[in-house]
Amino acid sequence: MTCVALLVALAAPAVASAQQAPVTPTTRAPSVFHRPFFVEVETGASYMALLSVRGSHSVFPNMVTYSGWGPGVGLTAGFHALIFSVALQLYASFMSGDGTVLNPSAGSGVSTNGNFNMVATTVEGAFRLPMGRVELTMRLGVGHLFMGGFTSGANTTSSSVTADGWTMRAGLGLDVRIYDRWFAGLDADVAVANVRRSGIAGTDCPGTDPLCAELQQDGDAVALMFHPHLQFGVHF
Q1: pLDDT digits over 209-221, tens only?
Q2: pTM of the entire structure?
Q3: For 160-218, where are the E strands, in sequence order?
């Protein structure tokens, strides 16, 4: 019994010391910087309704009003922290539709089809509300819009018409985490734009029809656009 008591007495301080020793917490990276970067690709459609600002001058040849739609693709890369993000987006679309002359002129009331390419580069800020595997996104962006490669069934000139200006867009989206850091979603954006076209040289247009006469004029226009699309993204 004496030996047992002696062993218990010797072990007691060590046990007490072990019980009182502080536990060092495991170091974790702050959640604000958890997978802060993201890349998204999107595919969908674009619709545009365009109206001339300056009387008889339109943004495209002999077109005071224009409406059309076409396929579009986009790429977005950005940084997010907590529920906010900033990103740069590049969006391209091929538009096809019809324009009508409304101003009083020799060509008034004439309609023609027209196609062109559209490229928008915008900086966006977003509010992202996580709800488990689902994330609700509200975005606002501003940037530059370029239109070019215009062709028309009634166009008799080889010169390419171009226009550019500023654009602003707002959008709502719903993303779902499909596996680990991979997401898929459905988004819809509404955008407005103001663009300007410079007239082509008179020697590039024979001037025998209203389309050529309009090509030689400068023009300004405002446009309203709608972009529904699917998107896929990764956070890293």
Answers
A1: 555 666 666 778 8
A2: 0.75
A3: 163-179, 182-197
